[in-house]
Specification:
By secondary structure, the protein is an all-alpha fold. The radius of gyration is 24 Å and the shape is extended.
Length: 155
């Protein structure tokens, strides 16, 4: 018997049995969820990625001297703050697993440093950011640190 356009038809529903725990852990989605964030064992005030964001954005905004003038300087300061704040916050929450209030405080401090109207990379403030983020002062040391972490047996 044909069902008309207004009559409901029964549709067979297939129910799959639940997957065993071993099969759920073998899926790529489960592996990415359990994969530790970068520099998971490093306990520093800032995550190293936050330090790179702070110093990198500061250098882009003030180290290159792209825009100068009395009008451009306040605009660059505000934009630098507004760009760096969510980036540092997201890194601190996701990778450092800080609480929301702690990440907000660290993001505000980092964004404030980026928004200062002069480059901090060559000052004591820049050195403090390097130290607080656990970043070495030499790029070759950073490459060695990354290579040692990638080759660790826990991965």
């Amino acid at each position: 018997m044909n069902a008309g356009p207004h009559e409901a038809q029964e549709v067979p529903v297939d129910v799959l049995p639940p997957l065993p725990k071993d099969a759920a852990q073998a899926t790529p989605l489960a592996q990415s969820a359990t994969h530790p964030p970068p520099f998971a064992g490093l306990r520093t005030f800032y995550h190293p990625a936050s330090g790179v964001v702070i110093l990198g954005l500061d250098w882009l905004a003030f180290g290159t001297d792209l825009l100068t003038g009395l009008v451009a300087l306040p605009v660059i300061c505000v934009l630098s703050f507004l760009v760096s704040f969510p980036l540092v916050y997201a890194i601190q929450v996701k990778w450092s697993r800080d609480t929301v209030s702690t990440a907000l405080g660290k993001a505000f401090l980092g964004a404030f440093m980026v928004g200062l109207p002069f480059p901090i990379t060559g000052t004591l403030l820049g050195a403090a950011i390097l130290a607080l983020a656990g970043l070495p002062h030499h790029p070759i040391e950073m490459v060695r640190k990354l290579a040692a972490q990638a080759g660790s047996p826990g991965k």
